[in-house]
Design a protein that fits this description.
Elements (H helix, E strand, L loop, with lengths): L6 H42 L1
């Protein structure tokens, strides 16, 4: 008796997890860059005032 999923499902799950992980990393990097840019803009605005 075989237990567990078939290899195709395991491969599909692995690809799905990989895609989600890459997506999370990309969005995280974009958010960090946006926050850095916002802080730089605030710093520049206060420097001019």
């Amino acid at each position: 008796v075989r237990l567990g999923l078939n290899p195709e499902m395991n491969a599909l799950a692995t690809l799905f997890i990989t895609a989600v992980t890459i997506g999370v990393i990309v969005v995280n990097r974009m958010m960090i860059a946006r926050e850095r840019r916002r802080m730089a803009d605030l710093k520049a605005a206060f420097a001019m005032a």
